[in-house]
Amino acid sequence: MELWRIWLSLVNSFEGACSRKKTFFWLIIVLIGFTIKFDTLGVTSLARGAGIASMYYTSMLHFFTSTSVNLTLLQSLWIKTVFKNFGSSIVHINGRCILAGDGIKIGKEGKKMPGVKWLHQESDSNTKAEYIMGHSIQALSILAKGLTTHFAIPLAAQIHEGIRFTYKDHRTLLDKMVELLSELSLSACYLVLDKYYVSGGFMKKLISLKIHIVTMMKQGAVAYEPLVEQKSQGRGRPKKYGKKIKLFDLFKTDLPFIKIRMPGDQNLVIEYCKKEFFWRPFGGMVQFVFTRHPKRGNAIVMSTDLTLSPSDMIFIYSLRFKIEVMFKQTVHQIGSFLYRFWLKSMSPKKRGSGDQNLQFCSKKYKQAVAKKLRSYHLFILLGFIAHGLVQYLSIYAHEVVWKNYGTWLRTIRPNTLPSEMVVSLAMKNTYNEFLVDDEYGSIFKKFVLQKMDPKRLRYLIPKNAEAA
Predict the structure, then answer these.
(1) 17: which residues sit within 8 A by CB, 6+ positions away?
(2) What angle do CA 372, 376, 381 make, to 5 degrees?
(3) What pTM was estimated for this model as a whole?
């Protein structure tokens, strides 16, 4: 019961994004479904998880297409909730929080789903197909710590490929990532990304938002030595930078490496060497940290912040993998990408097709596609909110979670936080108790019980009668 009291106190902050009280109650039901569902079959899983009767399934579907939920305001309220409630746990370096961004490709076989296209997956895993039909999504998260565990708290995600409303739209995935950052109004932070985002133009736009990037350099990367002032000016255009250097060739030279213990893993010793070079795509000086890992070999970490210490740069990039862990939990546990909404008026897409061009489509059809995309984004955002709330309970109420877990787990230790699956099971074990107790959120509970599946009510009524 204590878990649900904490959970509901956080959810109440999202009421302002709903134009009606009934809409807000359906929002809570959807979040409950994400939290305690036991299968991964779309909206039906959310209904079964929350115990909603089958006759109200259509009402839940209509919630995602309803205009009574202000998606922009809901996103803003979620950002405020994260910074307000995770404040002491959010990781800060030099007074800046750390954001992790990446893309994920979700397979979708629906032939009438806007945004679905032929996508290539780069992965060493045998379980992933090289090409799939699906949605290309870019996401942002913020890094937080509880005890000895780091979490990537999901903030926002959008579908950034598959649809072009006009031929004049030449934005790349990097441009859309900058737009996503600007929409969230996040500034004065570090953004850690993988090698795909190594782009000078992208970094210039981040600097305009007061955001510094921390990333890894590609094998063929080059830089230039700082320009040495010349006493006499010769013929031709003045030089802007010095000698060209292939960065990975410097590992073959006598760099003055320094040995340190890996931040976050004191049993691992690595070597690093800091260098500052002119990077032509960026048009200025950037910091490179050459690292030697005993198992993973040589790597170069780069940042646009010249004041950031090498150990902090290595530590920040080591946390980038947490967004991959977040994606795994999002796909297999929470189910933020399980939406299955089709557009009836859309022509079926063939397998292997690319972007859907809407340049010459009617205004009505464009509005229908935009509305369907909005329902996708609402589904994803609510999944992210449910995921973040589960992580909050893991950090701040882990003792209560272990108390209500109700089963055995080999990895239970005093200094270990429960995973998202453990928190969800603890919430599921106390759900009936939460519905029966009228002390907290009684109006919402009456709304839920009126729509509850009779099979679940059989277990609730005896307890309620006994309490009376």
Answers:
(1) 27, 69, 70, 71, 73, 74, 77
(2) 145
(3) 0.93
